[in-house]
What does this fold into?
Amino acid sequence: MNFNDQDMKLLHAITDLDMIPAGAINIRRDGEAVIRVSSPNIKVYPKEDKPGLNVEVKPGTKNETVHVPVLVTKAGFHDKVYNTFIVGEDADVTIIAGCGIHNDSHSDSGHDGIHEIIVKKGARMRYVEKHYGEGKGRGKRLLNPTTVIRVESGAYAELEMIQIEGVDDTFRSTVAHVADKANLKVIERLLTHGEQSAVSEIDAYIEGQDGSAQILSRSVAKDKSSQVFKAGLIGKTECLGHVECDSIIMGNAVIKATPQLVAEDARAVLTHEAAIGKIAGEQLIKLMSLGLTEQQAVDTIIDGFLR
Amino acid sequence: MLRLENVSLAMNHESGENKDILNNINIKFEPGKLYAVTGPNGGGKSSIAKVIMGIYKHTKGNIYFNDEEISQLNVTERAQRGIAYAFQQPPRFKGLRITDILKTAQPNMDSIGLRRHLRDVGLCPEDYLDRDMGPGLSGGEIKRIEIAQVLAREAKISIFDEPEAGVDLWTIQRLMGIIVNKYKQNQDSTAIIITHNERALPLCDEIIVIEDGAVKASGTPTEIWPLIKEEIECKKRLECRGEFGYEF
Ligand SMILES: Nc1ncnc2c1ncn2[C@@H]1O[C@H](COP(=O)(O)OP(=O)(O)OP(=O)(O)O)[C@@H](O)[C@H]1O
Ligand SMILES: [Mg+2]
It folds into this structure.
């Protein structure tokens, strides 16, 4: 393994790891797997027909974590990858994904991740995907994840998608299918600044009786950045769904938030809340009266909001 | 310790006209004493606190804090000099935990201190330290955390704006005990309590009555009591008849 400090720094930014953990793992750097290890319960192997991975979690596997981070460090490199995750019946696992891009050059680099996730009957899965970009060049750092997730009968899936820093352009598309008594929770945290732009579209189809879905988005848009957030809940039967988009807007940023509810059954209960606003003056003054400068107060409020 | 000299405040009203909110206020706050500021709604009590904290910029007069003229200092600088203010209506913060806000108030505080200040305001630390400062807290809880922040700051001047509002009787009595212990006869600090509470008033060294943006009277509780007794008793009778709503 030939990991340098910069790789470790990127890895830490997206996974909080300071060293390569035990257990199932795949680290992809500039289009190649640098580390690939399966565990007795979690099989990690490459796809045959296209770039990407299959990750298979054996039924009944409990409390295991699999790491599948991606690093892009080569200037001008654009990676495209197809991953499939299958979480077996009654398993309970955490998947740590995410992508870190370092680009000091003047040409764009990026990563398109196309993910398919199947959470089988009665299983529980938490999927954490953190995006991070850094580098001094004018070259853009681009990230375009596409995720299709199926949550089978009685299963629980939580998708946590976080983009806090340094990604210039992102188009994220998430489509979920939720079966009977299954439960989906999508948590999104997004910060854009400078001239960055982010688009996120989420559609959750609640297809089974007593299924439920929650989409919770919090974002902060600073400077001249722009964000478009579209979250749709489609209730096809007796089900529960809730969308919440909450944004702080600063500077000359633009935010467009569109929660959409589609009920195709009279027993579907779908709700939404959306709010966009600047940081309240009262909040700033309160923190300043505790001794913080105005800038420190702004940072404290944003850090808390995006936690 | 703190001196307001001929302080006036005018502000733009919604109608666009300039409205006088404070007129020629002269008050001297001495170290080691506990002050009560009272008077009718809209009289200007909170405005005085905000002018001291630097939230409102007074339009005339001078404010001296330990002999330094602080009129030009902003809120942060005044906080750093040792002025603290517990808001009448504290804001909420989505995502910040109670621990975070208390540590902001007092960065040097260890977990024993954090816990003590929560207990002081009648909140069980185990239940509250990790709770979110967002809409999930009740009005009374937010209010108590606000008071805990100011207690934790250990400031030279601590102003509590209607600490009793929305807080249950048991807690307010206990809190008054803590404030009396902490500030009375402590030569390094002064506390100012803006209050309508007839139990809190007699515990203070001096009562200042503010009405129509001016000091209507000031003196010891024995001197002031006859002046405000009627108002308080009238309020009590109305409360009994259910004609007096709660104040928020
Ligand atoms: N930001 C503001 N803009 C305009 N008018 C204000 C502002 N703040 C206070 N006032 C006015 O100043 C007057 C005094 O208000 P203040 O909040 O100081 O009263 P108070 O004595 O604290 O009343 P209460 O007992 O209801 O808390 C009121 O008439 C109020 O409407
Ligand atoms: Mg007031």
Notes: The first strand of chain A starts at residue 25 and ends at 29. Chain A is about 10% helix and 55% strand.
